[in-house]
Automatic annotation (TrEMBL):
It comes from Gemmata palustris. The keyword Signal applies. Keywords: Signal. Residues 1-20 form the signal peptide. It comes from the Bacteria. This is Carboxypeptidase regulatory-like domain-containing protein.
Length: 141
């Protein structure tokens, strides 16, 4: 009986170590501002993808501010080096007055340039998260 309990505990401990975020150790708070050519970027989703593990992402507000989410219940990102890229948050544009349901939102030339230049397959931006980061400045041009 004791042998079965020890074996079950060992299996549970091993599974916990293998699952990302067991107790969310190594996850720290990350927030900041995204600007492009000196202007805040709105309606963007900022993605932080670690070398290993689960990515985090956050939506920018009207001032370009974002807070990363590790999962729906946990704010933050995994400690370590991350590739950073952005995508347009077309869902944010869908509810605006004058928007046509199902139609692609019209982006300015600068917005198109930003979302193309810093897309998942083109971005060369890397950021290392090593502590709670309350004012990360992503100032791109």
């Amino acid at each position: 009986m004791l042998h079965s309990f020890i074996r079950a505990s060992a299996v549970a401990s091993a599974a916990c170590l293998l699952l990302a975020g067991c107790g969310n150790s190594g996850i720290v708070s990350v927030s900041g501002t995204l600007t492009y050519k000196g202007q805040p970027v709105t309606n963007a989703i900022v993605h932080f993808v670690p070398e290993k593990g689960r990515p985090s992402m956050g939506e920018t507000d009207q001032n370009g501010r974002f807070t990363l989410l590790y999962d729906p219940q946990t704010k933050g990102a995994q400690v370590g080096k991350h590739k950073v890229f952005v995508m347009h948050n077309s869902a944010a544009d869908a509810g605006k007055p004058g928007s046509v349901p199902g139609a692609a939102p019209k982006l300015s030339a600068e917005s198109k340039d930003l979302f193309s230049k810093y897309s998942a397959d083109k971005s060369k931006i890397e950021v290392t998260i090593d502590k709670s980061t309350d004012d990360l400045k992503l100032a791109w041009d």
